[in-house]
Write a structure and sequence with these properties.
The chain is an alpha+beta fold. The chain contains 2 helices and 9 strands. Strand 7 and strand 8 form a beta hairpin.
Length: 298
């Protein structure tokens, strides 16, 4: 019962049904909009992560080239490659300059086989880019040029390209500077107050031990099957991943005869999940390859 002339309060069934239908339509539209926004956000995050990954990988490789004691691949034999190999900062004999852990002595006392792996060049790798791996069979042939020149241990550590192959100090022997004395002839290499008082010409750091710190290679190589640049340590045979989403990787060795020291150009291309392409390229000078003093302090 209601009073005459007064409308009833509340909603009719038809009004409730219509309102529910409208709310349902709005909810579906809102849900799709939110889902779309989340997908866009996730895609943008993936693209940003790919970009950051590329920058971090380039920073790592350029730093390692800049401070390495030896640049192995690429080199003057085949200047353009899809691999990068440098001396890997591994301190085999755990010694330091000034007895300070900030100044490790790395790669300072190798054998005639600089990498101490029983193979020419880096074991299992085509060092000179001629299509053959460990071809010469001579473990003292550290640049794999034996069948070109029939030489070994022909490029001592002196800052010059002694064998005129476009690469500096890449194939030295157990007496790394070839001065027929322990350490540097006429110098107190280890700071103990004595000059040339080590164990003979093969004791390059004058620590009374011979050939105890070989050159351990750190290798970055492109694996197109997994779209990765992988990192390989020759001293413990561990393999890791430097970066994913890789669709291109190249290294180019530049050397201008006798007027400049060599430098390389590293180019890395990454493709994000949405197809966006990032290409990073940088030229870097291996500042430490002539000094051979281990870690460079800035």
């Amino acid at each position: 019962m209601r009073r005459r002339g007064k409308r009833p309060t509340g909603f009719t069934l038809v009004e409730v049904v219509i309102a529910t239908a409208i709310l349902g339509i709005l909810a579906v539209g809102l849900s799709r909009m939110v889902q779309s926004q989340l997908q866009v956000r996730e895609t943008e995050r993936s693209v940003l992560d790919t970009y950051r990954e590329g920058r971090a990988a380039m920073a790592r490789m350029t730093r390692d080239v800049r401070v390495c004691t030896q640049l192995m691949i690429p080199n003057g034999h085949n200047p353009t490659r899809d691999i990068l190999a440098v001396a890997g900062f591994h301190n085999d004999d755990d010694d330091y300059y000034f007895n300070d852990i900030l100044f490790p002595r790395v790669d300072e006392d190798p054998k005639n086989d600089v990498g101490d792996d029983g193979k020419p060049g880096i074991k299992g790798y085509d060092d000179d880019g001629d299509g053959w791996i460990d071809m010469s069979g001579n473990d003292e042939d550290d640049d794999e040029d034996y069948y070109e020149t029939y030489t070994k241990n022909e490029d001592p550590v002196d800052g010059f390209d002694n064998d005129h192959d476009g690469t500096i100090d890449e194939d030295y022997g157990a007496d790394i500077n070839n001065d027929y004395d322990d350490g540097i002839n006429g110098w107190d290499d280890d700071g103990d107050g004595g000059v040339d008082n080590g164990e003979g010409r093969e004791d390059d750091d004058e620590d009374d031990k011979k050939n105890e710190d070989p050159v351990d290679a750190l290798i970055f190589q492109f694996n197109p099957d997994s779209s990765r640049v992988e990192e390989v340590h020759t001293w413990d045979q561990e393999t890791g991943v430097l970066c994913d989403h890789v669709t291109g990787f190249s290294t180019v060795y530049y050397y201008d005869n006798y007027y400049t020291y060599p430098y390389i150009e590293i180019t890395l291309t990454l493709t994000a999940d949405n197809g966006r392409v990032f290409t990073f390229s940088e030229r870097v000078y291996p500042e430490n390859t002539v000094q051979k003093i281990g870690r460079r302090v800035y």
